[in-house]
Amino acid sequence: MQLFELLHAQGEPHAGAKLAAQVDPGVAHGLVYFLRSHASLGQALQALNDLSPWLLPDGHWQMHGGASTLQISMAPSYESQRLGRLLRYESGLVWLHGLIARCLDRAPPVERVACMTADVGRGAELEALLGCTVEFGAPSFALHLPLSCLDWPLPGHSPGLVHALREALQRQLPRQAAASDKAEQLLRWLRRQTDLSGISLEDAARYFECSPSTLRRWLAQESVKFADLLQMQRSWRAFMAVLDRRMPLPEVAEALGYADRAGLERAFHATFGLRPAQLRQWLSDVQGQQGLGLAEALTQMAAQARRESRPEALVRSLSQAADTLPLQIRDAAAP
């Protein structure tokens, strides 16, 4: 990440993306060979989706099919203002584009591309790599392809190779994920905790088998603090719990470790720019007026929040919730 930031400061904002465009099919334990050996692009992308927790340990990966468009999106799991991490995701998007091209043996017909990074006047370089216009400052990194591409056959189809490489990948990729930075490991640990109300730096240090001061120093080297990561995870859980209108707000506050409902509301407003009850009312209004399902309503709310220049945390959380909200909550909240 530091190298990406250094190159960006020296006038090469898309250096990582240019490097990522040069996909070597021999790297990543034969991942490219494994994917292009599937029968169709849809099967290859599903296999990639299954591997995403290992390939993208610090973020969300989503595939969402609309009426005629397939959206593949990526975003960091937690709020991060660090430029290097966003540039790494930008490079990953270009790598994904090249990976699909390798599978098809031709350039993929990308309809639209979105990037969380800002346009610094060199957007044409990224657009040349991706073959279409790029929307900068978006809530996630995303490729939009025609939905019909899922059925396209792959010229390198080989059932035997798929079987042979799958086992090798499953043995090797978890080791790669284990080498990720401490902030990413800590975030994954926090996500696994069922109760955040009593989590402390000391608890996290015991997980890493180090002293609290050592863990604090490791995180400082990555420009993050334990309290910030914990608050980010609590904020995301609060956001999702508020959208689940079956849970009273006092119960949400207690489950997430806030002193009371007022504490939850203050923290929620500080992060998202509105109070929990206001978010619930906004969602009800959008669904009631237009008869939309929950996912569609959240997508529309994200677009409205972006137009109104609301906090980036609100825009991003609405976009992620549209794809990641549990099915049981969607069913309960649908009009």
TrEMBL record:
Note whether Nucleotidyltransferase occurs among the keywords.
Answer: no
The residue ranges of the HTH araC/xylS-type domain are 184-282
Top-level division of the source organism's lineage:
Bacteria
One GO CC term on file: cytosol
Q: Which GO terms describe its molecular function?
A: DNA-binding transcription factor activity; transcription cis-regulatory region binding
Key words of the record: DNA-binding, Transcription, Transcription regulation
- State the PANTHER family in the record: HTH-TYPE TRANSCRIPTIONAL REGULATOR GADX, HTH-TYPE TRANSCRIPTIONAL REGULATOR VQSM
The protein's name in its UniProt record: AraC-like DNA-binding protein
